[in-house]
Amino acid sequence: MTTPPPPSVRFDAAWKQALAHAGQAAQRFGMNVVVTRDLLGRASLLVDDRANPLAADAPDVVSARDGFAAATHPFTGLEPLVLGSLLFAPDLFFASGDRTEVSASHGNVGSVHALERTVIGADWTSAPLPARTPFDGDWDRRDRRVAMYGFKGGVGRSTATAMLARYLADRGRCVLVVDLDLESPGVSNLLESPSGIPRHGIVDHLVEAAVGHADGLELVARGTALPVRGESNGEVWFAPAGGTPRAGERSDYLAKLNRIYSDLAPLTPGDGPRPFATRLEQAISACEDQVAELSRRPDVVLLDCRAGMHDIAAVTLTHLSGLALLFTVDNPSTWEGYRMLFEQWRQRQDHVGDLVERLRVVAAMFNSAGDVNRLLALQERAYNLFADTLYEPDSTYISAPDAEDAPHTPIPILFGNDLIGLDPLRSSAWPELPMVEAVYQTFTTTVERLLPPPHPEPS
Amino acid sequence: MTPLTADEYRTLIVRALEDAVDANTTEPDLRRLFTPSSHRLALAPDVTVVKGARGTGKTYWAKALTDPRLREIAAASYLMPRLRRVKIATGFAADRKADAAYPTKRVIARLMRDDEFDAVDFWFMVVLMALKVPEIAAINDWPGRMSWVRENPEALDDALQEADSAAHSDGVTQVLLFDALDHLHKDRMQADKLVSGLLEVALELRLTTSALRAKVFIRPDMYDSAPKKFADASKLTANTAELTWLRENLYGLFFHQLGNYDGPGAAEFRAATGGWRDEGDGRFIAPTDVIADQTRQEAVFVDIAGPYMGTDRRKGLTYTWVPNHLQDGNEEVSPRTWLYSLREAAVVSAERYAGYEYALHYDAIRASLHGAARIRVEELTEDIAWAVAAVEKLEGGEVPMEPSVVIAHWNQGGLSAALQELAQESGQDPQEDDGGSGPRKPDDPFAVLEELIDIGVLTRRLTTGAIDLPDVYRLYFNIGRRGGVSRKKS
């Protein structure tokens, strides 16, 4: 007879349990307690017994330790319960300025504090390439992924992503859109209603996988807002940044977010380290696999990245995608931003020649009215930027500033006053408007040419 | 599905384009004459001015029009039956025959030194000679003929009316061709004066006769710089056609050559690309989509060169890459440069990449640009030699280049002296290439710079105003391009 596996809880529930057990311990021992949560979200209970030391093997200490461990599994610290009297530097915990009070002491009951240990701001661009996972066919996963990135927000990137998804689906492709705008997760414009959001999102995968617990997450849903036209068999899928919990479930999005940006030590000794790039790659792969399971392997995966100089963007552009669309509007701060980004890549990447070929500039919200030279001016600025940073002297791009198919050549998305205020959520028929079609036509057809062919029919 | 192997394609390309890349010696020929739709108007008898940059086919069409069989082809291809009812005479051309209706360059220069010289008189004289008007044909020397025109205005009008009536009653249009105007005179001012007179005469014929028509083939910059201070000059401008080579025309030309080669491979190529129309005499016309539809053309070209300029789709598309890298500052590609590049790519592929799955290897295409650049500079040397001299002085420099730096190069390199030397009348064989007229203002470097931009040899960067040089010229001269970051190879 095998012992059943211990019950397990997800990230949010584990924290809830940890805080509940901390309250019980504060009451049982009449001492102040601190609950710490490490980079992986694993909780430990620290009891301040310095005034009245407890024995580590005392029955109530053992039962508190076991209860805490069982309730928080798998998000349990390496030492589920720690006695302050045995710590080398207890004030690092019990007097830390980073503590947040959960409940104050009253009467014989000690106080409860939470102490979060997270790290943000490490530099991922130098991380090694995640291991590729080729499968049958000539194109591996990375080649099917398109990063949609804008240094500045508000240039219509997400709308363009939706339009592109729809166009490619109309042309028979299976498209997955992944929301990597983790800092400001929104309701996707691919969904008719927020209720279509799956239970979990990318951040859930990141925190669960960190403790080897990623199986069984519900990561993707069908995009319902853009019905595919024609007899094309195309489909659109959507993976959100954060899921929508079921009624009554709690979900502390920020707490998860604070734990995802880190390179992790091996989960089990002997494995390789787990850099953030690799973890993000695994999260995206998990979404792709789920679409494959529910329907068929995605032909194209659009990664909607947030604006700014951000780790996610850096990783996605340099490591995770076969094609990176850089949304630009022709203003100095945009060029300056890209220049900083490119300078950084140039210093860190050995394979900048490979990287540069995956980049394409998109002239977002391009208002060409009355001036044909505008696009040329934008192209020239883009050329200067690339020539100063990423192009190598012997590349043919250098010799042809006006080339039609170089990385710096802007792919225009037109912009007209008629488009202002069109809300894709309010009017589900808006992509049908001929004017809207015209706006995106160059963009969608150009991108389509840069994509690998769809998967062959499964035989 | 293609019935031709890469190697068979290479052989076909090398042989079919063999003559096409020779210099001006290429006479238009029955099978290979290609009629792009954009050139249709240029042949219409009523279109007086045909503008075309160096190498776009002005001389080619002038020659084709003089050959009744080729004219018939054009009439059929362009649905222009009127071309079957024209008589053609030549009023000026580069290859002057002994009995030509116009004098040699040297005689023209001498006539112009006469204070009484008038360009309009000069061209009326040429028109009368071309029409073989007896009164003037009877005179034995050019100065004498000039005098006759000057002194007999009524007789001139009568002669023109008579020729007009004769042509009219025969039901034909008498077309007079004027080509190679770059070679009228070494001095640009004088050349402009002659061109201006010619345009006036051409317009006069169109407005006062019904069956006499001049057709003037001219570089756009020469047309623009010739003073048009005569009545109704605007009517002339409204009546011009341009010889342009759009991307689909270039590919149409290429495929037409392959399908009309008289040897192995051509029939297979035709079979592979759909229903070619047999025109007889070994001439075949490609299906419309092969001539005009970019999607279809790309599919055909991908069979020949593969889809990408490298191992994957991010390296650029062969279909657009080749024309893009051959264009000059006005975004024009000369057909000869184009065909040369393709042929050279086939030669290099056969030598170095024989095992490649497609006929043209992308690195061979890249390598062919250098030879294409040489061809382009040769073309330029024939008609606009001064432009070549000016760019040569930038040797060793780097573009983009500030205008002041360009001019400094010229000052140090002695451009003025070089231009003066070019402007000297060569005492050699008058049939020898003279390199054409000089720049409008040889002593003003800023004007020279502007003119080079006009003719597409230099370009000006939009945002910085710096001067740049299209690859099709840059690769010939030893001029580098700034930009690009050197990296330590790890």
UniProtKB/TrEMBL annotation, chain A:
Provide the protein name. Answer: Tyrosine-protein kinase family protein
Return the InterPro entries for the record: CobQ/CobB/MinD/ParA_Nub-bd_dom, DNA_Partitioning_ATPase, P-loop_NTPase
Q: What superkingdom heads the lineage?
A: Bacteria
* CobQ/CobB/MinD/ParA nucleotide binding domain segment(s): 147-188
Keyword Transferase assigned to the entry: answer is yes
- Key word Kinase present in the record? yes
Alphabetical UniProt keywords: Kinase, Transferase
Source organism of this protein record: Streptomyces xanthii
Recorded GO terms, molecular function?
A: kinase activity
From TrEMBL, chain B:
Question: In terms of domain of life, where is this protein from?
Answer: Bacteria
Q: Where is this region: Disordered?
A: 423-443
Q: Can you say what this protein is called? A: AAA family ATPase
Organism encoding this protein: Streptomyces xanthii
